[in-house]
């Protein structure tokens, strides 16, 4: 990464805010500039990570990496506003978009021949155990991609994929945290129903999901095999598994991913 690079974030809500924090860990807060319509959001980033509160104009003028963190519906309007200030730049800069479904070609059509990196992050990036999928636009080079990857290194796992796969990835890792939280929440309620306090059930449920994922990663074994390993004949676990099958848990999750994928594609139209 070019020494002394500055990164700017326009739109610092749930996801943009998390990624500004990640960038501050990698680059130092004094190299990160943040702007949002709601000043309280950037105030928090300034207090927590030492990021600089800035105006969009300042970010567009001096940041080498410009991250757009607004909702897909708000992106066309933002692109329209930033086009002119960006044409005045004579140095190299990279535009990063995290907007679900929006193709790099659409951003290039709005901004011209500028280097664009499209990413698909998730909120667990805040804990250092997130996932960010990355794809290069037509005018972005390896140097642009590498600078973005380096800046997001503290987020967790970073995967460069062809852009044709990013919407499917979004349905799994971008939307997946909500599905996993629903599962944890249900596991907690089940524990309370069986007699645990909510605090006890929460600790057990969260640690079980965390440990199961870690163990699957460590062993590299198929989750189906790991499930079979803990189901003893006529045991308690297989009884629970049978109920999940009866209530179509697996097909419900597969349908949820399909619906999220279809909606992601639709958001880009
Ligand atoms: N949340 C996730 O888990 C997740 C995961 C992967 C990708 N993403 C992507 O991340 C992007 C942001 O999602 P989010 O959930 O973080 O949304 P969010 O919480 O609503 O954050 C967006 C922020 O940007 C502000 N904003 C809108 N237009 C602006 C402008 N022109 N200048 C400055 N600030 C502006 C919004 O203000 P207003 O609310 O007043 O409009 C809001 O504070 C989306 O494109 C989404 O597809 C999100």
**Weakly predicted, low-confidence segments:** none
Q: What distance lies between the first and last C-alpha atoms, to the nearest angstrom? A: 34 Å
| CATH architecture title of the largest domain | 3-Layer(aba) Sandwich
Compute the number of strand runs: 8
List the helices and strands and how they pair.
Blueprint: E1 7-10, H1 14-27, E2 32-35, H2 39-49, E3 52-53, H3 56-62, E4 65-68, H4 75-87, E5 94-97, H5 104-111, E6 116-120, E7 130-136, H6 142-151, E8 156-160, H7 166-174, H8 176-193, H9 198-219, H10 223-229, H11 236-246, H12 249-267
Parallel strand pairs: 1-2, 1-4, 2-3, 4-5, 5-6, 7-8
Antiparallel strand pairs: 6-7
Helix pairs in contact: 1-2, 7-12, 8-9
NADP nicotinamide-adenine-dinucleotide phosphate is lined by residues 10-11, 13-16, 35-38, 41, 69-72, 74, 78, 98-100, 120-123, 174.
Describe this structure in words.
This protein is α/β, with parallel strands linked by helices and 269 residues long. The protein has 12 helices and 8 strands. The protein has helices spanning 14-27, 39-49, 56-62, 75-87, 104-111, 142-151, 166-174, 176-193, 198-219, 223-229, 236-246, 249-267, and strands at 7-10, 32-35, 52-53, 65-68, 94-97, 116-120, 130-136, 156-160. Strands 3-2-1-4-5-6-7-8 form an 8-stranded mixed beta sheet, sandwiched between helices. Strand 4, helix 4 and strand 5 form a beta-alpha-beta unit. It binds NADP nicotinamide-adenine-dinucleotide phosphate.
Which descriptors would you attach to this protein?
ProC C-terminal domain-like fold; alpha/beta; Rossmann fold; eight-stranded mixed sheet; binds NADP nicotinamide-adenine-dinucleotide phosphate; 12 helices; 8 strands; 269 residues
């Amino acid at each position: 990464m070019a020494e002394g690079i500055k990164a700017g974030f326009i739109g610092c809500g749930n996801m943009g805010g998390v990624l500004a924090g990640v960038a501050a860990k990698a680059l130092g807060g004094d190299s990160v500039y943040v702007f949002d319509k709601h000043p309280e959001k950037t105030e928090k980033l300034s207090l927590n990570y030492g990021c600089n509160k800035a105006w969009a104009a300042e970010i567009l003028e001096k940041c080498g990496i410009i991250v757009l963190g607004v909702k897909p519906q708000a992106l066309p309007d933002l692109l329209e506003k930033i086009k002119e200030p960006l044409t005045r730049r004579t140095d190299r800069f990279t535009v990063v978009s995290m907007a679900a479904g929006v193709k790099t070609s659409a951003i290039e059509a709005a901004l011209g021949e500028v280097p664009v990196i499209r990413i698909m992050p998730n909120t667990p990036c805040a804990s250092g155990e997130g996932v960010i999928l990355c794809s290069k636009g037509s005018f972005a080079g390896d140097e642009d991609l590498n600078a973005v990857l380096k800046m997001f290194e503290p987020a967790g796992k970073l995967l460069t994929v062809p852009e044709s796969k990013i919407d499917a990835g979004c349905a799994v890792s971008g939307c997946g945290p909500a599905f996993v939280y629903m599962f944890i929440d249900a596991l907690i309620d089940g524990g309370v129903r069986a007699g645990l306090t909510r605090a006890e059930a929460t600790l057990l449920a969260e640690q079980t999901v965390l440990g199961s994922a870690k163990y699957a990663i460590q062993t590299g074994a198929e989750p189906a095999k790991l499930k079979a390993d803990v189901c003893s004949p006529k045991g308690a676990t297989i009884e629970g598994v049978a109920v999940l099958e009866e209530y179509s848990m697996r097909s419900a999750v597969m349908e949820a991913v399909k619906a999220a994928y279809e909606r992601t594609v639709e958001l880009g139209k």
